């Protein structure tokens, strides 16, 4: 698998990928990697190309088509939103999406009016290697992997617990103890090996009980230097 680069405007980090499973995350961001800096012109990829990008293991064509279709159905419900002083706009990032079952291809095109999300990305952008993203197993870990890339220059990210629930699409039924066990522990298990330092701190406010109520989560992290990573490929970063 070639190590493609995913790069997009930080507006995408404000979107909650509701109900996306890990396979659908991989499919979506693999398409983003291929649409990067392509304008709004549609591109066509073969099923084999997409599978290679995502390390998709199943050889079942019907299942793969089902996964592609499910991903797009969920993507149509994503709340892409733009607001300035004069207006609020909601939009679909990929209005063109065509699966050709006979030719085994998928064709995608970016919304022309909002192509800046994947094109005009010289400032306020998030950048990461697709391979590292697809190797993660949990959807929660994948989302935090992306979010922390936005803050890698500071190594610090703090978020209100309510916003954390929204962005990661955590079930409303989860109490703080459930979030700790089913979300935070999974994130720490998968992401901590990627960092020289990785720490999650629960910030509390006064409330009932002796311990108080968790109001914020604080992530402190320090990325490993290239020489500290295993099997780091050489890249010409100027071409990315």
UniProtKB/TrEMBL annotation:
<dbReference type="GO" id="GO:0003887">
    <property type="term" value="F:DNA-directed DNA polymerase activity"/>
</dbReference>
<dbReference type="Pfam" id="PF21205">
    <property type="entry name" value="Rep3_C"/>
</dbReference>
<feature type="domain" description="Initiator Rep protein WH1">
    <location>
        <begin position="5"/>
        <end position="149"/>
    </location>
</feature>
<dbReference type="InterPro" id="IPR036388">
    <property type="entry name" value="WH-like_DNA-bd_sf"/>
</dbReference>
<dbReference type="Pfam" id="PF01051">
    <property type="entry name" value="Rep3_N"/>
</dbReference>
<protein>
    <submittedName>
        <fullName>Initiator Replication protein</fullName>
    </submittedName>
</protein>
<comment type="similarity">
    <text>Belongs to the initiator RepB protein family.</text>
</comment>
<dbReference type="InterPro" id="IPR036390">
    <property type="entry name" value="WH_DNA-bd_sf"/>
</dbReference>
<dbReference type="InterPro" id="IPR000525">
    <property type="entry name" value="Initiator_Rep_WH1"/>
</dbReference>
<dbReference type="GO" id="GO:0006270">
    <property type="term" value="P:DNA replication initiation"/>
</dbReference>
């Amino acid at each position: 698998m070639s190590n493609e680069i995913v790069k997009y405007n930080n507006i995408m980090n404000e979107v909650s990928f509701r109900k996306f499973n890990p396979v659908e995350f991989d499919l979506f961001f693999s398409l983003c990697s291929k649409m990067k800096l392509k304008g709004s012109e549609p591109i066509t990829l073969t099923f084999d190309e997409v599978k290679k990008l995502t390390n998709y293991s199943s050889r079942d064509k019907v299942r793969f088509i089902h996964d592609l279709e499910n991903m797009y159905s969920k993507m149509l419900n994503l709340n892409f939103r733009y607001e300035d002083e004069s207006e609020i706009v909601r939009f679909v990032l990929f209005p063109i999406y065509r699966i050709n079952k006979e030719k085994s291809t998928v064709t995608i095109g970016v919304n022309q009016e909002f192509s800046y999300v994947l094109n005009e990305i010289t400032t306020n952008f998030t950048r990461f290697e697709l391979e590292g993203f697809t190797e993660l197993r949990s959807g929660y870990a994948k989302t935090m992997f992306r979010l922390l890339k936005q803050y890698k220059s500071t190594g610090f990210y703090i978020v209100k617990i309510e916003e954390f629930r929204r962005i990661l699409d955590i079930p409303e039924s989860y109490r703080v103890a459930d979030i700790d066990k089913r979300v935070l522990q999974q994130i720490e298990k998968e992401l901590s090996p990627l960092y020289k330092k990785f720490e999650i701190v629960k910030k509390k406010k006064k409330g009932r009980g002796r311990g108080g109520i968790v109001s914020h989560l604080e992530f402190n992290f320090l990325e490993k230097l290239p020489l500290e990573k295993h099997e780091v490929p050489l890249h010409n970063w100027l071409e990315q």
